[in-house]
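hiii so my PI (J.) wants the whole complex modelled not just the main chain, which honestly fair. so below is everything: two entries, each one labled with what it is. i double checked the lines twice but i was tired so who knows lol
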Amino acid sequence: MISLLEKLTQAFGVSGNEEQVRDLICNEIKDYVDSYHVDALGNLIAVKKGSGRKIMLAAHMDEIGVMATHIDDKGFIRFTNIGGISPHIFVGQKVRFANGTCGAIFYEEKDADMKNLKFSKMYIDIGASSRAEAEKKVKTGDTACFLSNLTVQGEFAYSKAMDDRCGCAVLVELIRNLSQTSNELYFVFTVQEEVGLRGARTAAFQIVPDIAIAVDITRTGDTPEAELMEVQCGKGPAVKIKDSNIIAHPEVKRLLADCAGKNNIPFQYEVLERGGTDAGAIHITAGGIPSGALSIPCRYIHSPVECISLRDLENAVKILREAVKQA
Amino acid sequence: MEIKEALKELGCINAITGFEKCASEKIRQLFESRGIPAKVDPFFNVVGRLKGRGEPRRKILVTAHYDEIGLLVKSIDERGFIYFTNVGGIDSRILPAQEVIVHGRKDIPGVIGAKPPHLMEADEADKALRMKDLTIDTGLDAEEVKKYVSVGDPISIKSEMISLSGGKFSSKALDNRAGVATLLQLAAELKGYDHCCDIYLCATVQEETGAAGAVNLAYNVEPDLSVVVDVCHGDMPGVEKEVAFPLGKGPAIGVGPILNPEMTELMISVAKEENIPYQVDVEPRTTGTEAWVTQVSKMGIPTVLVSIPLRYMHTPIETLDAGDVKAAAKLLARFFTAVDRCWNCPEKPLELGRLEVK
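here's the output for the full assembly
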């Protein structure tokens, strides 16, 4: 699981540029599924055939990042955000473009207003001394992700892009360790979740499953002076009750909670006051698809040090193994 | 009398957005009792259908959401106090000192605590409380609470219908049980009329968090005309006249860019001809109702909006005039007759609102 998580988190896949992640996942699963294809938007849809109910499991491949908007005469790159991120998180960070070019992010020192720091007052330094030199490596519109290795200490793992490569890792592990079921399973690795749940919407329309389960991360309330939330890192995967986009369907909630409870797998309930996941788009597609989500508790979301518990990941795989059978 | 009874029955139903399952069967039975054959769909929309005699038949979809705003358990502290968040828009200033019901493994009564004035700091009394600082007291200790209640359980505010003078009634959840009551009365108004088209009378779910019920239903029914019945703001002190409508002056007919002009015009002309009181509700943007989503379902559906004026929206004492519900039902019944006639006029085949793509 750790080496898989390392490969997945370190791959480049800012929203709209998920190719590297997709190729990686393709390689990991192709020997274990009956068929797979890439759809028009870039979603990877892998199928385990069956004669029972159609179950869709979705994890998004894309990660938050930045996009170059302008390159100045001295070769400094101005940028904007892709996905919801605070400018402060980027100060002093290294980022990497798809072609491997790395850069350091800093802010205009003169008249710096740190309280109201804006992306427009920040830049990426890639070590170029002119616009021409910079443009050999980076063009306007290119995206970059955080540069941040996977660190594992005890049961906790820290990296960029845990959101939602840890969900991808859960689905890959699930695919490789499925038990016998007559249900038809659709494993969907979606694109562009961070910019509005876009890939999941079109994938669900093609599949029209009987039920759908998104596997994504959720906030926790277990860090110093955190906003009140019951979910804790390491206390089990969280069965979603609600987020900004969906109130989970009772059938899906019960399925996930029962599969965990009956097998003595720890789980928690998730009431997420701000934020959403692919299930929010899926449940109002094609006349309605009963949907819910199994969430991996994650600290420091949308930062280079997103932190999850490996035990939670393993337990998520166990719950889903049962759920795809019982659904 | 009928309407008052319907409002009373509907007002005491608890159906917090996303947790309508428990109420769906009760609503279905109410539909059946008023002669509307009805089913519950997988999302707990209650789908009633008055079958027409034509073949093939056009379809009118009338929706009124039956979900209501409410609260959700967020956390239980070590003394058993319950912290909560909102489902749908709630002003936290109305919450202190309310009676609530926590819908856990069993229903548990509770109160939302309020700090006594004696214990307040000097500037504290002037400040509005935030939801994250409010808690529910059930009288049970943490261990007992956790036996019955888990994170994510819904909570409703307790309220019984009050009959005010002048035909006005006050209750929780009249947004939008007023609309559901309109559907029930509409079925009575349509009795004996031999319509060609199918008329779907549907009580929908999850309007308060983005109209998910109507999204799914409009896709599945694929109607030729969508009619949304919801509430609009009633007039009250401190609210501008342009955004609020007097009670008892008839339902408000929505006019705006997302609403179908031909159908809206026809409805207004029907109201005039039949001497049914109505008001005009100018809706320059989304309307804040299911009309926003039904309009763009599949290839697009001509949509109209009728609203019952309602004071104190999203509080436990939402107030309306039953006469407006009655007028809305009559207006819709007469309007449907006119639409049905237009759709089936052999001399003048009027393709009202429907764009045929060849």
